[in-house]
TrEMBL record:
<dbReference type="InterPro" id="IPR036188">
    <property type="entry name" value="FAD/NAD-bd_sf"/>
</dbReference>
<feature type="domain" description="FAD dependent oxidoreductase">
    <location>
        <begin position="43"/>
        <end position="408"/>
    </location>
</feature>
<dbReference type="GO" id="GO:0005737">
    <property type="term" value="C:cytoplasm"/>
</dbReference>
<dbReference type="InterPro" id="IPR006076">
    <property type="entry name" value="FAD-dep_OxRdtase"/>
</dbReference>
<dbReference type="Pfam" id="PF01266">
    <property type="entry name" value="DAO"/>
</dbReference>
<protein>
    <recommendedName>
        <fullName>FAD dependent oxidoreductase domain-containing protein</fullName>
    </recommendedName>
</protein>
Length: 476
């Protein structure tokens, strides 16, 4: 496998290089769906065939709903196929921070809902006979600093605070002053940390391919690929449940899906403001590096850096495993993107000296809500349009639990998680207003270059180059 792993599916993926998941599950293994060629009607139209869309389809089809699933490229061509495959309720943002925004009751909802999602993947893979490497394992949280650094002990104290909060919320968690990871044999000593038991991991595309193949056999399910949506609009009048509204989902080919409810599982919903202004947009990076089979402990591993590292294993071949190492996150459009995978490789080799060749390098997009919780439910100002966005680095479990939340809301079933995830929530967003305003101002400054010029004339450009020529004329 060439280390460049340049994607052979350039217009069928959200990145320029393939992720490690194609190693055992190539794109050719995925179910193929034809393009929508006419207007259709259905009960629920889901837009976006990643883990949120497929999970929502699965839950709704099982409840007897008629579902049409639309994908702009081919199924699993977006961010789901570019994750690192962690299934955990040991959440990125930490429960100490989540409780500051949502209270302990909101933090409890986060813990319970992500635990449900983790277990739900295991239940479904077993029920459908999907071999997807699903397994239970511990998650380790360690300091980003070496033991001799004074900041190391400071971070361990913070991890003890997180342990107390997680224990209060019912997680199986312990603290180990001597915690080490088998296979970490480099000179850098970061021992000690949090052990969160009963977490999980899997192969995301193997799992979702299996779910899709089951859905294909169901009479109340249809899926269309290469079908890009340009608008989702409610039609009709409905006041306090009286009246009749429907939703028109229009594609770029001018076909319409008329439905009772539409669900946008598109990472970013098709709208201009509101929840879009309530998120930060991050790029994250991953490498898959060979290690001798069995030489590194099978666990989930996280450090406490702002651009934190996250680590897990997946199968490679008879001789090697792949150590998947991710991190070096940064705000989109605000960093040089050429060095992150090299930084990850150096970090890995400094700690795991048996690490061999890097076979895969890729990146993905993360959507960070200002109050740490995803937006799942009825979109602001709508009665029959639902959204799923704001994965906050835990997109796999967020996508799975979204299936239950959306299905319950469409069915009129009360769900105790709903208010914490509601796109219409106000209290936790208000607490985050200063950081949200600062973030939005920072984004807007990035557009300054589009009001200026990088070049004075198109002739300044060489082959394959681009620039901004902002020539404003004033008629007098």
């Amino acid at each position: 496998m060439a280390s460049s792993n340049k994607s052979q599916q350039f217009f069928h993926t959200s990145g320029a290089t393939d992720s490690v998941w194609v190693h055992q599950d190539p794109v050719s293994n995925r179910p193929s769906f034809s393009k929508l060629g006419s207007d259709v009607e259905t009960d629920v139209c889901i837009i976006g065939a990643g883990i949120a869309g497929i999970s929502t389809a699965y839950e709704l089809v099982n409840r007897g709903r008629e579902v049409v699933l639309l994908e702009a490229r081919q199924v699993l061509s977006g961010e789901t196929g570019r994750t690192s495959g962690h299934l955990t309720n040991d959440l990125d943002d930490g429960y100490t921070e989540i409780a500051k925004k949502h209270g302990e009751s909101g933090a409890m909802v986060a813990a319970e809902s992500h635990a449900w999602a983790r277990e739900r993947v295991g239940e479904i893979s077993k029920a459908l006979g999907i071999e997807c490497e699903y397994r239970k394992l511990p998650a380790y949280e360690i300091s980003q600093y070496a033991a001799e650094d004074a900041k190391h002990d400071d971070e361990l104290r913070e991890l003890r605070e997180e342990e107390a909060m997680q224990r209060k919320l019912g997680l199986e968690v312990t603290f180990d002053d001597k915690l080490t990871v088998r296979g970490w044999d480099g000179a850098i000593d970061q021992r000690g940390g949090l052990v969160v038991h009963n977490q999980a991991t899997f192969h995301p595309t193997k799992y979702l391919n299996g779910v899709l193949k089951w859905l294909q056999k169901q009479p109340n399910f249809r899926c269309y690929g290469q079908t890009r949506v340009i608008s989702v609009e409610e039609k009709g009048i409905e006041i306090l449940g009286i009246g009749n509204k429907s939703v028109n989902v229009q594609t770029t080919d001018q076909h319409t899906v008329k439905c009772n409810n539409a669900v946008e599982t598109t990472c970013v919903p098709l709208q201009k403001l509101s929840v879009i202004a309530e998120m930060e947009y991050m790029r994250t990076y991953c490498i898959a590096i060979r290690v001798p089979k069995g030489s590194v402990e099978d666990c989930l591993l996280y450090d406490q850096a702002e651009e934190y590292k996250y680590v897990r294993l997946t199968a490679c071949d008879d001789k090697d495993d792949y150590l998947i190492v991710g991190g070096c996150d940064h705000k989109v459009g605000q960093e040089d993107t050429t060095t992150q995978s090299q930084q990850l490789e150096k970090w890995t080799r400094d700690r795991f000296t048996q690490a061999g060749r890097v076979d895969y390098r890729w990146s993905g997009q993360i959507f960070e809500p200002v109050d740490f919780m995803a937006f799942i439910g009825k979109n602001q100002g709508n009665d029959h349009i639902y959204i799923v966005t704001g994965d906050s680095g835990d997109g796999l479990t967020h996508g799975v639990l979204a299936g239950r939340l959306i299905a319950d809301e469409i069915d009129g079933v009360e769900n105790s998680w709903a208010s914490v995830y509601s796109p219409k929530r106000l209290t936790s967003i208000a607490k985050s207003l200063p950081s949200m305003v600062a973030h939005d101002l920072q984004i807007n400054t990035q557009y300054k270059r589009f009001l200026q010029s990088d070049i004075s004339d198109i002739e300044d450009l060489g082959l394959g180059m681009g620039g901004v020529l902002n020539q404003v004329s004033h008629d007098t």
